[in-house]
Write a structure and sequence with these properties.
194 residues; 9-stranded antiparallel beta sheet; 3-stranded antiparallel beta sheet; 57% strand
Length: 194
């Protein structure tokens, strides 16, 4: 796009989350689990996202990128055996960062540094704010991907909380370490000529 100059990209998206997961599970004593312990929300949600990326002439392998996601939550009108309504708070999340690529010992390395911001609005029960829900979080996430061989990628990430403000008393994320291995399957175009 011309607005960001050459070597740039913009992606927009809209979507929905369907209420397919259960939202009426009980414990072994028959007591209904609270909404935050259910696998589903019992509501339709609308999702929107925007992704921006920009490479630079001074370092063609480097990319500055941003991903922005907004979830507008719906209302579960059958909460507590159809006696109440429950609405999870809307959520905004932004990931902004810088990644690069370099060759060392005949191996491709991709380091990156990402800043993550997340804001969740308070949940509501019967259209009243629910205490001890919602908040804001900021994380810094250094990461490194290594192409071991052409079709195997190893990814290491550490997510470090640098700021959090939660409403009331609630659990909040701490340091996380994530490791993954990705395999690229051969996708040759095999055609049969008759």
């Amino acid at each position: 796009p011309e607005a960001l100059g050459s070597k740039s990209g913009i992606n927009l998206g809209l979507g929905a989350k369907a209420p397919l997961g259960k939202s009426d599970l009980t414990n072994e004593n028959g007591i209904l689990l609270t909404a935050d312990l259910q696998p589903g929300s019992g509501a339709w949600d609308a999702l929107g996202w925007l992704s921006l990326s920009k490479a630079f002439d001074f370092r063609p392998s480097a990319t500055f990128s941003g991903n922005f996601i907004y979830r507008l939550t719906g209302i579960n009108n059958s909460y507590l055996n159809n006696t109440s309504s429950y609405e999870f708070g809307d959520v905004f999340q932004a990931n902004v960062g810088y990644t690069d690529q370099f060759l060392l010992f005949n191996t491709v390395f991709n380091p990156g540094l990402i800043f993550k911001y997340r804001k969740a609005s308070v949940d509501k029960i019967n259209n009243s704010n629910l205490p001890n829900t919602g908040g804001e979080w900021v994380f810094i996430r250094p990461e490194l991907s290594v192409h071991i061989i052409s079709n195997i990628l190893v990814t290491l990430r550490m997510e470090l909380p640098i700021y959090s403000y939660v409403d009331g008393t609630q659990l909040t994320p701490t340091t996380r370490f994530i490791a993954g291995v990705y395999f690229k399957l051969n996708n040759k175009n095999n055609t049969i000529n008759l």
